[in-house]
Every structure is written in structure tokens, then in C-alpha cells.
Amino acid sequence: MQYRDDHRTGTRISALGLGCMRLPGYLSGHIDLRAAERVLSTAIAEGVNYFDCAYTYRGVEAAVGKLVERNGWRDRVLLATKLPHGSCRASEDFDRIFTASLERLRTDHVDYYLVHNLSTLAQWEHVRALGIEAWAARQKAAGRIGSFGFSFHGSFADFEELLDAYDWDFCQIQYNYANETYQAGTRGLKLAAARGLPVFVMEPLLGGKLAGGLPPEAQGVLRAAAPGGKEDALWSSPAAWGLRWVWDHPEVTMVLSGMGAPEQVTANCAVAERALPRTMTEREHAAVARALAVLERTNKVPCTGCGYCMPCPQGVDIPGCFSAYNASFALGRMTGMQQYLTASGALTDHPRLITQCVRCGACAKRCPQGIAVPDRLAEARRRLQPRVVEPFFGLVRRLRG
Fold first, then answer.
1. Distances, alpha carbon 126 to alpha carbons 43, 86, 120, 133, 314, in Å
2. What b/e sequence results for 297-333 when a residue is b if at least 16 CB atoms lie within 10 Å of its CB, and e otherwise?
3. Are 50 and 80 in contact (CB under 8 A)?
4. Which residues contact 37 (CB under 8 A, 6 or more apart)?
5. How confident is the model at residue 401 (pLDDT cuts 50, 70, 90)?
């Protein structure tokens, strides 16, 4: 494992961090502790020393805290978690939420604490008016918080304003080869690094879209250009290309990957050992550009599958529906419809169909990608659930009793 320095604190951080939001069982809110332990123990053995959690990731803090305590890992890992600014209505909420996180994580301090999904200056001004600056200073002085930063899902202009609004210790941005000009983007990465901030990267594979969701044509482009040749599976996989592209930027301090299986950890760590800054060739960057052009022809909704839009009050599996919708263009309409049948439970006794959407808009307000979710769901319904197939769903359910 290669390590990069947090120049603010001198901390050595593994180039690959474990994003714990996607631990086994996360979708239900009930983490599979046995499976999660295999993921975390593999990460520790491979040299990963940064575990990323959040107050709002259902069941994650408690699971990570229990496993870290059980295995005596606390001195070997850097724990990060996040404050949901939208849940703060009074200054007392800072202590209430932070104390709950510490209790779940079974620790007396966190190494990195982030204001979660801080995307506009107005959101920062809201918590600043409640006294968050003085509160953060007290926690750092007491040793309960090591570094104080923010995660970001807004525009570059908003990002620049937020960097000027406070003396941050670090920041966390979404960044991958499909998002160079999206959100903070390359300009934001370079701006933050130029100001001396460690920059942590989330969604390096766009919620898995740049790993398992690439169209076959795009996969072929990358496989043919793999630096180790066609036989080198490590370098020819779409996931390796996506991770290498991010690590090629020297401004990146650490890359978070939401790894849900030990095999994913092992594979990504093997890439992390060899993927050094500025080692990708012009030919390789050109191959990524060609693969991206193929992807952009097929990817209709920029959903990363983060699940922030969930739960839907009507039970619709929004990320699952968008994944199926995108697959219907990348892999064929029938493949997309098959995925939709699974995601929606269309043939079960309790289907969660797109037609159950009542356009309440709660999902759109929570979406960090700014997707007009109800409108895009309507598009997905027309492609995945045309009216001619709805009687078929009902017939199958009746035949099943």
C-alpha cells in the first residue's frame, strides 16, 4: 500500500480508503456483521487505514465501531464520520449528533470529522450562525476531533466560496474521469490542493458505473489499451482504469472506494500499490477519453447509486430503477427491463413500481447529483414499464396466488 501525507497534521493516509456506506447489508440498514468483518479485516491486512462513515448511513457507525473494538483496530485506523447539517436546528444539535456518533463508533475521538454534503455557502452560514466554528474549535482543543472538513456535492462556484468561508483542514469531493467538469471537478481539485488542503475523493468509480456498468464497447477500448497487455487482468479491468485515473493526479491525497466484498478490497489494493501519480501515458489517457465517449452515448441518468434519495415514501427503489434504465441503453432494452423486474419486485406480492411515485419531490431535494428525480423516473417508466406490460405483471402475481 502506498501512503500519502496529510500535510496539515503529518498523518500518513493510505492512498485507498474504505467507504463504509456500502458494507454488506447497507441497503436494508442492517449491516451483516460477519460479512462486514471480512471486508474490514481484509482492508486492515492490505494496509488500508482510513474508514469513512456518516451519522446518516444506517447501521454503519455502530457496525464499524463494534468491529473495530472487537478486533483491537482503533490504533491502526483513522475513523471519519459526518455531521448532517440539515438536522441542526440549534447549537445543542452539534453535541447531540456528535456524541451519538462517538457512542456508535465506541471511541472517544474521530480523526476526521466532516460537515456532510455541504454544497452551498448558505448551508454553511446556517450552521455558522448556530456557532459551529466555536464548537469545532472546542472539540479539536479537547482532542475529540482531529481534523475538521466538509464533503461537497455542489457547483464549482459554490466550492470556491466555501473554501474561502473557513480555515478548513481538508475537503472531500466527487471526482472521476466522467466528472472532470462536474461539481468541484478538476478545477476544484487543483484549487483546494493549491491552498494546501488534503483532498479526499469519493465516487472514483461513479457508484460502480465505471466498473461494472461500462458498455461492452467501452470495456473493449480499455482492455485493448491496458499497459500490461491484454493478459494483465489487474490493469485491464474497468475498475482499475477508473482508480488509476484518479490516482494519476498528484493533488489527490486519498481515494475512497465503497468496497462490499473482500475480493474487491484485494483487487483495489493491488492497483493502489502500483498506481503512482503522473504514471499514466498519453495513450492511456486517450483510451479513457474514448471509453468515456462511449459511456456518454448510453448513460441517460447520472445516478451514482448513493441512496441519499432513499427511503422513498412509496417504496420505489429509485437507484435500482435508474440503474436498470441506464442498463437498458448500455446493454440492451431487454437487459434493462430484466434488471427493473428485480429492482422493483414487479412479480412479487409487494411490488415497488415506478408507477407508485406520487411526485412528492422528497427524493429530488436529497439528491447530491441534482437530478430531477420524479421527471427522470417518468422517463424510465416509459422505457421500462410501458403500459402494455403492466397487465402481465398483474397476471403473474395472480397466477402465483
1. 37, 9, 10, 11, 31
2. ebbbbbbbbbbbbbebebebbbbbbbbbbbbbbbbee
3. yes
4. 67, 70, 71
5. very low
Helix pair 132-141, 121-129: axis angle to 10 deg? 70
How far is 85 from 271, CA to CA, in rounded Å? 35
List the domain range (segments joined by +) for residue 385: 318-399
- Report angle CA 96, 100, 101 to the nearest 5 degrees: 120
Asked whether residue 300 is domain-assigned, the answer is no
Say whether both 361 and 276 belong to one domain.
Answer: no
One-letter amino acid at 289 equals A
Could you tell me if 164 and 238 lie in one domain?
Answer: yes
Q: Which residue has the cell 397476471?
A: 395
How many domains would you assign to the chain? Answer: 2
Is residue 389 scored above 70 in pLDDT? Answer: no
With respect to residue 305, please indicate whether it lies within any of the assigned structural domains: no
pTM for the full predicted model: 0.79
Rg (CA), the chain: 21
Number of H helices, E strands in the chain: 17, 10
To which residue does cell 436529497 refer?
Answer: 366
Query: Does 301 reside within a domain?
Result: no
